[in-house]
Write a structure and sequence with these properties.
This protein has 440 residues and is mainly beta. The chain has helices spanning 2-19, 407-410; strands spanning 25-40, 53-68, 71-82, 101-111, 120-129, 151-160, 163-171, 203-212, 216-235, 238-261, 264-276, 282-295, 300-309, 341-350, 356-366, 377-389, 394-405, 423-433, 436-439.
Length: 440
């Protein structure tokens, strides 16, 4: 009887609490995503004779959402770790570099206009949140990496049937200071702060404007990020950065366009970057991109495209895994000598059934600037990925990638890998479980 009563109470109480807010809703969800990887040159070529790496990583998330009259709340707590990272008994010693438990999202969105106003809304979203815009090239949640990406920010949003206008800002500090705003941007742990392995920004502001077209979209982005100034000092004969007052400021602006025409969908983007980067260097860079996909049939799509990034351009806080090859050779943690990138690619997508999606891509990579005494060609990458939906909550994914690199890629001025092999490969198998419940 006691067990029956406590079980009914656990179901009734949320309903009683929510009834106070009229049409309030509570959503509860979770994610458990494991990924087993065989790495034999993922990220950079391996030296000849090096053994492949093999491991399983896991992301575990608990997700809650609440919505009521003129308010929404979101909360995501996650734990990221490699199987075997911790002792199998109680671990009384915490290693900060391996501590993968964190708050991924915690935000509130306040509707400043009344909900009865149709086709228009003005809201303010504050707290830890993902910033995802357009195709995630410059601002994305980096969901492929187990830890993902989030920002501590405030975003003012105006949205109507045809227009989207967002303005956001973030200001980072290490702690509650008694005075001053000096910020140490070096993150704890093993993860880089930025897409290209740089330091975390001290502050960030952006404006985003998007206009819906008949079968497409045109958007404009202006983003400026600031980085802590520093000077180099010597501590026990080792050079270290000493962070100081003031900041370097960098600006990025440009357009993104996508359109559907009969069986063809195409996208184009152009961005310019200028100002001063986190190392105090003056930059003037650009990113140009264009691609198309053609629906050959209901089951098969194929297309091609080209990307160009100049040596000075940094792709900000996007999702590079989506664009420049699954093996993450470019614009991830492993640098490639500030040479810029040309990427010529072919993409295919096959849906042999309701549950299956298979993609196959080929990339041909070149440097965007000269490499002294060598060819500009970096190499060729082939990616094959298969997704299978077992149920609405359970998905399986497998992939294999191969990279045929040139001597240019492993040369001292690019990846700087001594005695590097010319063939690299990477394979993975992932299980993604995502239950979700709605309480009205």
């Amino acid at each position: 009887m006691k067990k029956w009563f406590s079980g009914r109470i656990s179901l009734i109480l949320p309903g009683l609490l929510l009834s106070q807010y009229g049409y309030a809703q509570l959503t509860l969800g979770a994610q458990l995503r494991t990924r087993t990887e065989l790495r034999n040159g993922q990220g950079a070529p391996q030296p000849l004779g090096a053994d492949p790496a093999f491991f399983t990583s896991q992301r575990t998330r608990l997700i809650a959402g609440f919505s009521a009259y003129r308010i929404k709340l979101g909360l995501t707590v996650q734990d990221v770790r490699v199987w075997g990272q911790d002792a199998s008994t109680l671990n009384r010693t915490t290693t900060p570099d391996n501590n993968g438990f964190m708050l991924h999202e915690a935000w509130a969105e306040i509707l400043l206009t009344d909900t009865i106003v149709k086709n228009k809304s003005l809201s303010l979203k504050v707290g830890r949140q993902e910033l995802v815009y357009d195709d995630s090239r410059l601002l994305g949640n980096l969901d492929w990496l187990q830890q993902g990406r989030r920002h501590d920010a405030a975003v003012l949003k105006y949205e109507s049937r045809d227009w989207t206008l967002h303005a956001g800002a973030a200001f980072n500090q290490n702690k509650e200071n008694a005075s001053g705003t000096i910020y140490n941007p070096v993150p704890p742990g093993n993860y880089p702060a930025n897409t290209n392995g740089g330091n975390a920004y001290k502050s960030l502001e952006f404006a985003y404007v998007s206009r819906k077209l008949s079968k497409g979209n045109l958007s404009f982005l202006f983003l400026t990020d600031q980085f802590s100034k520093y000077h180099t000092d010597s501590v026990e004969h080792v050079a270290v950065k000493v962070w100081e007052t003031g900041a370097y400021s960098r600006m990025t602006t440009g357009l993104f366009y996508t359109q559907q025409f009969n069986r063809i969908s195409y996208t184009a983007a152009a961005y310019h970057q200028f100002g001063t980067n986190g190392n105090g260097q003056t930059v003037s860079g650009s990113l140009l991109s264009g691609s198309f996909m053609y629906n050959v049939s209901k089951a098969f799509t194929a297309g091609a495209g080209v990307d160009y990034t100049s040596p000075d351009f940094d792709p900000l806080y996007g999702t590079p895994h989506k664009f420049w090859g699954n093996m993450d050779y470019f614009y991830v943690a492993s640098g490639f000598g500030n040479k810029g990138l040309q990427d010529y690619y072919i993409k295919t997508k096959l849906k042999p059934g309701q549950r299956w999606v298979v993609t196959g891509d080929v990339h041909e990579f070149y440097a965007a600037s000269a490499v002294a005494g060598m060819s500009k060609q970096f190499g060729t990458e082939a990616d094959l990925t298969a997704n299978y939906t077992l149920t609405k909550m359970i998905g399986l994914e497998a992939g294999y990638s191969h990279f045929w690199n040139t001597a240019t890629l492993s040369s001292p001025s690019v990846k700087n890998i001594k005695n590097a092999g010319s063939n690299s490969n990477w394979a993975y198998l992932s299980v993604n479980i995502r239950p979700e419940f709605l309480i009205k």
